[in-house]
Amino acid sequence: MDLESRSPASESRPSKAYRTTLLLAYQSFGVVYGDLCISPIYVYKSTFSGKLRLHEEDVEIFGVLSLVFWTLTLIALFKYIIFVLGADDNGEGGTFALYSLMCRNSKMGLLSTPHAADEHLTAYKLEPHREETRTSLSIKKFIEKSQTSRLVLLLFVLLGTSMVIGDGVLTPTMSVVSAVSGLRIKAPELHENYTVLISCIILVGLFALQHYGTHRVGFLFAPILLSWLVCISSIGIYNTIMWNPGVVRALSPHYIYYFFKKAGKDGWSSLGGLVLCITGAEAMFADLGHFSNLSIRIAFTAVVYPCLVVAYMGEAAYLSKHREDLQQSFFKALPEGVFWPVFVIATLATVVGSQAIISATFSIISQCRALGCFPRVRIIHTSSHIHGQIYIPEVNWLLMLSCLMVTIGFRDAYMIGNAYGLAVITVMLVTSCLMFLIITTVWRRSVFVALLFTVTFGSLESLYLSASIAKVHHGGWLPLLISLIILMVMFTWHYGTVKKREFELQNKVSLDRLLSVSPSLGLVRVPGVCLVYSNVTNGVPPMFAHFVTNFPAFHRVLIFLCLQTLTVPKVPLDERFLIGRVGPPESGLFRCIVRYGYKDGRLESYELENQLLLRVAQFLQQEGGRGSSTNGAMSVISEPCTLVVGAPGGADGGPKRVQFKGVEAAAEEELSHEVWELMEEREAGVSYMMGHTHVFAHESSPFLKKLAIDGVYGFLRRNSRSSAVSLGIPHSSLVEVGTVYRV
């Protein structure tokens, strides 16, 4: 090939990818790393707040620095950057991403029962694996055969998820309160009420910014965090040279041995505060869907990690000569001339630090909602380029109110820090345990490799967890309470949703029975198209049978529509619609399964109507070309090619508004009779039918089941968004059928 004939576009593609990666790395500073980077403000203070304050010799100070360095290196760098980020689910991260990855590779999950055709989805085709090991098969069989094991695994995942959401309350509170408390260095007479008031004002401002989206917030916050990293690393270098250059020796791990030898049990107790040095490490994985593996790795290894090490080193060098300043070491270590500029940047950086966990909370709740483990909430996609960047108004304001309550109620950063540390380390331990299953059942590595990973990192995290649990009575009870409430909400919603679907499957009506009783009912077919929403993928949903029995009439074209969320992040648009005919051709009945990934945005009603009817028309064209009907068989219908008319400009490159009229004469001659009938019925009007369901526990059910279904689940259903509102169905075209389910 002539080198000169190569197109400029092909030559610029790699450079464009590099620019995109670097741009995402820049944005990640404002979203992912804030929490991790502001830890120097409170780590030494929290570590020396307990009995360790009685040990103020160089051995203890250098031992804490060595612990901080190796904790950052082992957990943040080795565990997350090198290993865990490689366990992404098609670019998505977080606890639920690990769970969905396992569900897709086995039958260990409880959250989805995919259709047989789902196995042919592109997203289900994983990279070539090693051969299944005997250990891998044994682990899979054990969990798959035991319903209890599958339930425990789901509860374990929900525990980690609820702890991350609990972090969304504690991180902003801890960060902002710690920074604002620096005011009392220059104004000791300032009353605590004023610092609490200032903290509350900053928190309200932070959550008020969230509706602008991660994209804009990232660009706004990234310069602040980069300025913060420059400040703390510069001051760290200055303090190291100025006060004690020999502090570099503390990076040697043998100082950890000397630390525990001298501090003993007090040293172990201090780990509950020291664990705060890795707060935000989990956000690197949870926020992965907002960015990319490479961008997060570049930002951490090239900038964040070295700056943090230098900052902690400088603070330890200052403390080795000023042991009396242990309780306000960060702000006391600032040179006099830069105190106020650094204080302002520190306050702004704490706002940035809170952004990481807020974004992660939005992502995780979106995944939980899609997989049926969280009540319906409004999800706003704030970027047309990065689909994972979302905003959830209801969750945002609930987080804000919770943060304000904790700030006003606790007031003390030490108590908040105890709660914060327990939540952080619990999430990390859950991730380590889930990685054991990923390594053995998904990556199909030997059990020795999985045990090496889990024991290495899990034992270190268990050590931190034991120290954090010992502080439950000093504030550590708060994340346990928050996570328990969230866990109860998620599990009860999942349980109620499963029981509702089971009732519909058990009480569905066969189509033959419905058609056989139609003459006795005096069934009337009215003009138009009706989309019947249900969770039933075969047969007739009980809601529709109830409707026909009481009102024997329905539209000439009837499409039973089932919206499914699969355990994949995204389903390509050309593989989303699965369409088949129900009954004989003259009945005008169809079934459509619309498949979404847990990170896909739901199509609005009008857009879904256009996409669906176009694909039904394409299905009829294909069926007409074969010269036979495909009753019962379902086909994947990709982009329709015959009826697409109008000006381009849609989200997928298709038309903005698809019309069935105005087709060119050449195309009109090719259209089958059934397609013309579909076009005419669409012109007559499109209606939507769904059940307005009331779910109650059966009278003979045990008390706990009645409490879960009638009490908690009923309360959540009444106070969450209705299905019609979530799907954007116009009220004027909606037919709701009231039904009562006794589960």
Automatic annotation (TrEMBL):
Residues 527-742 form the K+ potassium transporter C-terminal domain. The chain crosses the membrane at residues 21-41, 61-82, 151-174, 194-212, 219-241, 267-286, 298-318, 338-365, 420-439, 446-465, 477-496. It comes from the Eukaryota. Residues 24-515 form the K+ potassium transporter integral membrane domain. It is found in: Membrane. Belongs to the HAK/KUP transporter (TC 2.A.72.3) family. Potassium transporter. This is Potassium transporter.
